[in-house]
Amino acid sequence: PYDGPSAADIARKRAEYLSPSLFHFYSKPLNIVEGKRQYLYDEHGRRYLDAFAGIATVCCGHCHPDVVDAITRQAKRLQHSTVLYLNHVIADFAEALASKLPGDLKVVFFTNSGTEANELAILMARLYTGSHDIISLRNSYHGNAAGTMGATAQKNWKFNVIQSGVHHAVNPDPYRGAFGSDAEKYVRDVQEIIEFGTTGQVAGFISEAIQGVGGIVEVSPGYLPLAYDKVRKAGGLCIADEVQAGFARVGSHFWGFETHGVVPDIVTMAKGIGNGIPLGAVVTTPEVAQVLTRRCYFNTFGGNPLCTAGGLAVLEVLEKERLQENAFVVGSYLKDRLRGLQEKHEIIGDVRGTGFMLGIELVTDRQLKTPAKDEICHAMEHMKDMGVLVGKGGFYGNVFRITPPLCFTKEDADFFVEVMDIALSKL
Ligand code: PMP
């Protein structure tokens, strides 16, 4: 049993000593003290089904014993910066990670977060091409340091500091976008940015395959191959941000970009790579990787033994427990069931996503697509009271984000749908 400080004590300390910009989802925030597989437990021992997994971070399940063992064993043996001496852990993990990527994508740079990974990817694209301009998609999230805040394209996440050299292309959003799913029309904007906003040469293009923070928006089928083509013709590199979609989450494939049939020049990752520990990575080709030999590139904690031992264990668990297959099978089942809910509840405007990266957009008017901002907060609160935690996001904050640990079962999916059904009925 938990005998730590009460929720009220923690809230008081948090208000006094932690960032005032922190936010929480619920009117009475939960005090979560333990996690196991797809469940979280509060201080009273109450169990919650976790359908958000720390923002798509926990892939193997909370505190997976194999991952915990790998980390603790390593912590007892050696924890040191990786750069000065040889150690096998970082090399073993880099090799294992490279084996999951197609083509010549085999050189790994480790970082500590998704922001750092994207900063590095953008830097490499600029160095490699000698150009500065980056194209990203509106509604995307790529991080919150100077360069990545520029690439992030939602006012909610931007501060008024210099974010130079990023152009934001019209989002190929099948639900809200002006051109529906018409990839060719959307990609004209990429071409126009290149022609009218740059010298005609760009450093690169960065995109998620499914926008996570943006509200589980799957970029229109056919868009990425066309966009990659335009960007490459303008001398740019294509960066796939797999921070949320990567690591088996989309089910049908290991990486989100694979669902679009493209091979990027640089892939960035974080979140799921470490099942909750701070770890990120950039993977690119030997040719692109060469650019960092022009100066010293150094990252004290990037690829440290503890995190890379954990990362290697994550890959082994994904394989051993066939979690990608589970994401595909249970994710498809859950999506079907959510489509059923859509028939019953007028407020569900759209059900979308792939595998265990699913979104439900709530609207008060299906024709006008008016965001149901308050309704979603009430529904989330009800769901929490019934023992289910779900995320939300999207530009208007009206999209449920369902990104559970990949060990989520069919029974969990049924329970989730039942609880959501009751919550939406109560609105
Ligand atoms: N890219 C994507 C797609 C993300 O969702 C996030 C985090 N929400 C990031 C990058 C930044 O990752 P981090 O918070 O680890 O810096």
Automatic annotation (TrEMBL):
<dbReference type="InterPro" id="IPR015422">
    <property type="entry name" value="PyrdxlP-dep_Trfase_small"/>
</dbReference>
<dbReference type="InterPro" id="IPR015424">
    <property type="entry name" value="PyrdxlP-dep_Trfase"/>
</dbReference>
<protein>
    <recommendedName>
        <fullName>alanine--glyoxylate transaminase</fullName>
        <ecNumber>2.6.1.44</ecNumber>
    </recommendedName>
</protein>
<dbReference type="InterPro" id="IPR005814">
    <property type="entry name" value="Aminotrans_3"/>
</dbReference>
<comment type="similarity">
    <text>Belongs to the class-III pyridoxal-phosphate-dependent aminotransferase family.</text>
</comment>
<keyword id="KW-0663">Pyridoxal phosphate</keyword>
<dbReference type="Pfam" id="PF00202">
    <property type="entry name" value="Aminotran_3"/>
</dbReference>
<dbReference type="GO" id="GO:0008453">
    <property type="term" value="F:alanine-glyoxylate transaminase activity"/>
</dbReference>
<dbReference type="InterPro" id="IPR049704">
    <property type="entry name" value="Aminotrans_3_PPA_site"/>
</dbReference>
<dbReference type="InterPro" id="IPR015421">
    <property type="entry name" value="PyrdxlP-dep_Trfase_major"/>
</dbReference>
<dbReference type="GO" id="GO:0030170">
    <property type="term" value="F:pyridoxal phosphate binding"/>
</dbReference>
